[in-house]
Amino acid sequence: MEETTRNRNFIEEQIEADLQARREAGEADPRVRTRFPPEPNGYLHIGHAKALSIDFGMAERYGGSCNLRFDDTNPTKEDTEYVDAIQEDIRWLGFQWDQVLFGSSYFDQCYELAVKLIKKGVAYVDDLSKDEMREYRGTLTEPGRNSPYRDRSVAENLDLFERMKNGEFPDGSRTLRAKIDMASPNINLRDPAMYRILHIPHHQTGDKWCIYPMYDFAHPIQDAIEGVTHSLCSLEYEAHRPLYDWVVEQCGFAHRPRQIEFARLNLTNTVMSKRHLRRLVEEGFVSGWDDPRMPTLCGLRRRGYTAAAVRDFLERIGVAKADSVVDTAMLEHCVREDLNAHAPRRMAVLDPLRVVIDNYEADRTELVEVENNPNDTIAGTHGVPFGRELYIEREDFAVEPPKKFFRLKPGGEVRLKGAYIVRYAAHECDEAGRVTCVHVTYDPETRSGQCERKVKGTLHWVPAREAVAAEFRLYEPLLFDAEADDGRDFTERLNPASLTVRHGFAEPALAGTQPGDRFQFLRVGYFCTDPDSAPGAPVFNRVVGLKDGYRA
User: Fold this and answer.
1) Cα–Cα distances in Å, from 156 out to 115, 268, 272?
2) Cβ within 8 Å of residue 469, ≥6 positions away
3) Would you list the domain boundaries of the chain?
4) Do the domains 266-345+466-552 and 348-460 sit in the same CATH topology, yes or no?
5) How far lies 102's CA from each of 41, 59, 491, in Å?
6) CA–CA separation, 285 and 277 (whole Å)
7) What superfamily does domain 266-345+466-552 belong to in CATH?
8) Residue 31 and residue 133: Cα distance in Å, rounded?
9) In this structure, how many other beta carbons lie within 10 angstroms of the beta carbon of residue 364?
10) Which residues are catalytic?
11) What whole-number distance in Å separates Cα of residue 15 and Cα of residue 533?
12) Residue by residue, what is the 3-state secondary structure of 232-272?
């Protein structure tokens, strides 16, 4: 019902209008064909997730197909490592491509079409350096100037372009440019570069090529060859659309893909620039691309975010025409909702304080039952060993408690989750005055489920003897948000408290936990088992806290 009643976004409206026009024209196969074209020079992040959800989502919605096409036209930082990682991320999100393709597979066709444009007189080989080209290009308010090499003959351009291909010239010495209009108000049409010289091996083609097509030239060719109907891309390509259409037209393609732009995703307290993310990794600010503080999909997955939560978030933010910044709290809200519904409940103590129940037999152990998930009626319970010595959170005891402190304190009593009501008896301190142990007594008539007496405080705990020593990694935003254009390098906004490591204990049922397992630790937050875990020595990443700071 939701699908039939929700408002259509502007991309859907344009696609539906196109489909109607194609049906009316009697087109035999008016299906939607899209593509997701990541460059394999890094890992996908949450911003890419928005783009791929639109590309794949539109194909799904209209019964079409979506290709995964790697934009590997620049071999300087591309690698098969990223090809594999990108496929893994897309699968994790639950999308399925029609074909896996590579932009490099079209290098022969791109070269032939470049020769065609030279013969048409709309492309030429330029000897200007990169800096000189920038100088000749002009500004947003001043027209550019023609290159002194713009009027080379077709024969000379063909000869030079072939020699470029044959490797006769060094990197950067010559460029193939489109001959359009150096006075165009759209700076992208001022004779843009189509090919550059790069004597670098390619991860797919090896040493076959030393010239590589530019994105603005290769991309529309690839779309046209594949029969892409709608080339969906982020808003920064809006000014490139006239060039996209020019390439398709000048190359003589009968099929004309339609480019539609949407606003990219920006989140508070993070960066989305692949260049910035690479710097964080290479300069050691984070442990790697999958560091749980990173906005990469592999980082979010390692932290414990679910694919369902990410897709829910992407659906909620929708598709817009104007750039905006989304509060990270909204993403956290989505994963919190998902984990609250599905994550099993367990107990863990991150900052342990020893508790001794003085009137409980020293050699006695009993099992108490704790619910697995109160939101799931069939989830049942699990047993936790209960004995004379326990650990509670240090913050759950106060010698001089503030007002409305309903946890353990002198003269007070609390219930231990799933077990008994205990009353304060005494406490011990070290030489520095730090509390090292709290003594309590328990009432054997108050076992949970068998006693109606109520107390205001209920504490989580773990048994001291059976507890599993564990590491807990607590994450905060990687960056502090800054005022717009404050001029600082983004690394100056890095949060020094983005990672806090604590060593505590978890209930014994977690001794065999596996990487990727997710839990709600009662009264603490949602956690995920990290790959750094070892048998009997688990490591847990805090996915998100219990408190929800998002307001719709």
Assistant:
1) 12, 53, 44
2) 503, 504, 505, 537
3) 107-215, 266-345+466-552, 348-460
4) no
5) 13, 19, 34
6) 10
7) Glutamyl-trna Synthetase; Domain 2 (1.10.1160.10)
8) 42
9) 10
10) 39, 264, 274
11) 48
12) EEEHHHHHHHHHHHHHHHHCCCCCCCEEEEECCEEECCCCC
Tokens, residue 230: 């709608």
Angle at 208 between CA 207 and CA 212, to 5 degrees: 95
Name the architecture of domain 348-460.
Beta Barrel (2.40)
Return the closest-CA partner of residue 172 out of 279, 249, 76: 76
Cα distance between the two ends of the chain: 22
Closest residue by Cα to residue 197 from 248, 162, 157, 222? 162
Q: How big is the CA angle at 321 (ends 65 and 143), to the nearest 5 degrees?
A: 105
Region 107-215: CATH code: 3.90.800.10
Tell me the backbone φ, ψ of residue 286, rounded to 5 degrees: -130, 170
DSSP run (H or E) holding 220: helix 215-226
**Residue 234: burial class (beta carbons within 10 Å; 0-12, 13-18, 19+):** middle
Report whether 213 contacts 113 (CB < 8 A): no
pLDDT tens per residue across all 552 residues of the chain = 344 456 889 999 999 999 999 888 888 778 999 999 999 999 999 999 999 999 999 999 999 999 999 999 999 888 899 999 999 999 999 999 999 999 999 999 999 999 999 999 999 999 999 999 999 999 999 999 999 999 999 999 999 999 999 999 999 999 999 999 999 999 999 999 999 999 999 999 999 999 999 999 999 999 999 999 999 999 999 999 999 999 999 999 999 999 999 999 999 999 999 899 999 999 999 999 999 999 999 999 999 999 999 999 999 999 999 888 999 999 999 999 999 999 999 999 999 999 999 999 999 999 999 999 998 889 999 999 999 999 999 999 999 999 999 999 999 999 999 999 999 999 999 999 999 999 999 999 999 988 888 999 999 999 999 999 999 999 999 999 865 456 788 899 999 999 999 999 999 999 999 999 999 999 999 999 999 999 999 999 999 999 877 666
Q: Please give the Cα distance from 399 to 410 (Å, whole number).
A: 6
List strand residue ranges (DSSP E) for 410-537, in order.
413-416, 421-429, 435-442, 458-459, 462-463, 468-475, 499-506, 518-521, 525-529
